[in-house]
Amino acid sequence: MLTLYYARPSLYSRPVWLALLEKKLTFELVHLKMDGDQFSSEFSQISPFNRIPVLVDDNLPIIESVAILDHLETKYPNPSLLPKDAETLVKVRMVQMVGLNELFSAAGGLIIYQKNPSELEYARQRVLRGLTLLEDLLGDNPYFAGEQLTLAEIVTGTLIPELPRCDIPLTNYPRLSNWCERLLARESWQKIRLSDEEFTNFKRRLGVMRKIWHKRRRQKTLTFAQKNQKA
């Protein structure tokens, strides 16, 4: 039995959710609110760093979205979300990591730093630099691996279609724009995409949720340290 602990707006939850849908696996969703549910004692038992998502597969809790995606690809290989040849595989992995390490964090900055012009511009330039690279890597192919949808789409395809909602239009990236339209036509993307109302609410609350998350995580870490000292 597969159980995904997730939050609908979470950029790190959505790729896992998409992979489960694209592989047509049977799974249960457990929704967590990002402003505190992840700090419950029950969730802390399966997520020691209180991060979302967590996938539980036959009583095995798996944390970190990259590890979860690799687990799904290894244990449930059909349909495959990774190409076989080395050159295409490394392109897919590069796109995947650019999404996780650059675009995801920069996109958060587009929302959080609305009242800090210098930080906002830095976040914006990080996103534009990433988009320029991905536009070139995509080329004239329907997907980054050619005709095959892969983890490159599963990861970056959860964010790039939403960038116009953060005042980053895709007009200068026609290949990525067409790629987004192709993804959004898929049933799996339609299931996971936030409505305009959900996205607006998420943007409005992100700063507050971020402060709560840092405060609660600090408290948990200090409590852990005190327990170790007593032991």
- Taken from the alpha-carbon principal axes, the silhouette is globular
Number of helices: 9
Domain count, please report it: 2
Oligomer: single chain
Which fold name fills CATH's third level, the topology of the largest domain? Glutaredoxin
Look at the structure and name the CATH superfamily of the largest domain. Glutaredoxin
Quick take:
By secondary structure, the chain is of the alpha+beta class. Helix content is about 60%, strand content about 10%.
Descriptive account of the structure:
The protein has 231 residues and is an alpha+beta fold. The chain has 2 domains: 2-79 and 194-230, Glutaredoxin (3-Layer(aba) Sandwich); 86-190, Up-down Bundle (Glutathione S-transferase Yfyf (Class Pi), Chain A, domain 2), CATH 1.20.1050.10. The chain is built from 9 helices and 4 strands. It has helices spanning 13-22, 41-46, 65-75, 86-112, 117-138, 151-156, 174-184, 187-192, 196-230; strands at 2-6, 27-31, 54-57, 60-63. Strands 2-1-3-4 form a 4-stranded mixed sheet, covered by helices on one side. A hairpin with a 2-residue loop joins strand 3 and strand 4.
